[in-house]
């Protein structure tokens, strides 16, 4: 088959694409701008021919990147896991609010009866419910502060990871320069400036992390204080149900005390027996005659 006819505009587009690819390949990747966190990179192929002993600093820098990525992943996992604690704290706050409403309802009921004992017990119950609400609110604030700290921890670990990547690129650039390897557009100062910028971002993230840590510790101390205040708060007394005295019960309701029965002497009919009645004897005794 004959090849399909190519439009002149399409032919020119293909030539431009091939020319662009050729130019990019000729640059050697000395310095390339990508969409990643770093803008300045040095391809590994320029230093692969150098002995492993001389690449020791590069290898150590690469190990620091692996460790930083592991710490970043751990911080992200802890932040995600704290979401369940936040949900539990919110439910506990709602439960404490419902308990406070119930205690306030019991107080209004006692006030309507004008019974001082019930009113005092209900007031103590309202105080205990308020202490529970304060503790639940303090716990919710503590969990939120801890999540804020964990979020700052994630930001710091991410910035630290990028700083280690910049340090890795700088170590490769230093090794390449020491062996007189300079791709097109190569400049060691660019790698040094990139590392300084990433280190500055990491220090800023570290300062924010420390601020969040201080706030989380303060929230924890406040929660501990509210928890202790609730423990020391008086608990509401249980009002015993009123019962009628036994003497006030009507005769048909009052319990009947059983009359003790006395045993009659041997040979005599038991107390309360009719004349001429034969007392009950055991199977081993012979029946006795009643005297005439």
What would your notes on this structure say?
The protein is mainly alpha-helical and 292 residues long. Helix content is 64%, strand content 0%. It contains 4 helices and no strands. The protein is rod-shaped, with a radius of gyration of 46 Å.
> What is the percentage of strand-forming residues?
under 5%
Cα shape: rod-shaped
Q: What name does CATH use for the topology of one domain?
A: Helix Hairpins
Q: What is the mean predicted local confidence, pLDDT?
A: 79
How many DSSP H or I helices?
A: 4
Low-confidence residue ranges: 1-36, 238-242
| Residues in helices, as a percent range | 55-70%
Task: Tell me what the CATH architecture of one domain is.
Answer: Orthogonal Bundle
CATH class of one domain: Mainly Alpha
Structural class given helices, strands, pairing? mainly alpha
Computed Rg: 46 Å
Q: Got a strand count?
A: 0
Q: What is the rounded distance between the termini?
A: 152 Å
Q: What string gives the helices and strands in order? A: HHHH
